[in-house]
Amino acid sequence: MEKIKERIEQILKKRPGYKEILNFYLKIKEEQEKSRSHLHLSPISLKKEWRELLKREGFSLIEKKDFPVDTEASIKLFHSLCEVARGANPRLAEQTQLIQEAVQQNRLNLEEILKGKVKEDKRVKELGLDQKVFSFLIYQSIKPSLEEGVKDLRKELEGENWSKGYCPLCGDLPSLALLKGEGGKRYLRCSYCGAEWRVDRLFCPFCGNREEGSLQYFCGEGEEAYRIDICEKCHHYLKTLDTRVMEIIDPELEDIATLHLDLIASQKGYKRPVPHLWNP
Ligand SMILES: [Zn+2]
Ligand SMILES: [Zn+2]
Predict the structure, then answer these.
(1) Cα of 96 to ligand 1 centre, how many Å?
(2) What DSSP character marks residue 269?
(3) How far apart are the CA of 167 and the centre of ligand 1, in A?
(4) pLDDT, tens only, 244-278
(5) pTM of full prediction above 0.90
(6) Side-chain-facing half-sphere of 230: CA atoms under 13 Å
(7) Tally of CB atoms within 10 A around 250
(8) How many A from CA of 170 to the centre of ligand 2?
(9) Distance 211 CA to ligand 2 centre (A)
(10) What contacts 198, CB < 8 A, 6 or more positions away?
C-alpha cells in the first residue's frame, strides 16, 4: 500500500485533476486489503478433461461464475465500500444510498446475487437502480476472492501455450496490455480476473487481425510508458503499459491515471470493448 500511495503522489504532481478519483481508488483498495486477510475460500474444482479442452477447443479453464467467492466476506466488504462511495462525488453518493436502502429493505438480496441465484442486472433494472454503480460495487467486493483464485489457477496453466485474445482462466476479454522484459514481450491482462497471458506483438485480441499496416498506436505527449494500440479493422483499441519504461505497481491504477488517453481514443472514433470500470 505504501508504494501505491507514493505512486499516487507522483501522478498527482503531474496531473492534479485526478485527485478525486485516485483518492476514491485508494480508499477502495484499503478496504479490499483489510478484507483479504479474512478470506475463506473453497478450492476450485476443475473438469477432469480441462487440459484437453484448453488445448484442442480453446476453452478457458473455468467460467467467471465458477470462481470461488467468500460470500460473507464480500457482503461485509460491500457495505464498507458503500460507505466509501457515499463520501465520493454527489451522483455516486446518491446512487449508492439508493442501493443501500434496497439492500436494507431486502428488495435486493446480496447473498443470492453473489451466489448467482438471481440475475443481478434484471433485478437492479426492476428496482430502477443504477446498474453501473451496482456492478462496480459488487465487482470490487468480490475482487479479493478473485485475486486469490487466480493465484491458485495460474499454477495449472504453467507451460501452457495460450496466445488467444481472451483469458485462459475465465474467458473474458483483456482491458490492458503490458510490455515486459527484453524485446518487450506482450502480455494481455484480463478485465475480470486480472490474469496475464502472453501473446504476439502484432495481434488484435478483439478480431484476430495480424496485418502490420492496420495495427497502429499512439502515445500521449511525454508519456512513452503508455500507448494506445488501435486496430483499423475492428476499430477497437487497447491501452498498453510499457513496464520497461516505468515500474508498474498496479496496472489498474495506471489505467485510471490515463483516462485522458481513453478520451483521445474515443474522440478518434475507437472503442474500448470492455468499458473502463472507473470511468465516472
Ligand atoms: Zn480472466
Ligand atoms: Zn481488431
Answers:
(1) 27
(2) T
(3) 5
(4) 999 999 999 999 999 999 999 999 999 999 999 88
(5) yes
(6) 17
(7) 15
(8) 21
(9) 10
(10) 162, 163, 185, 186, 187
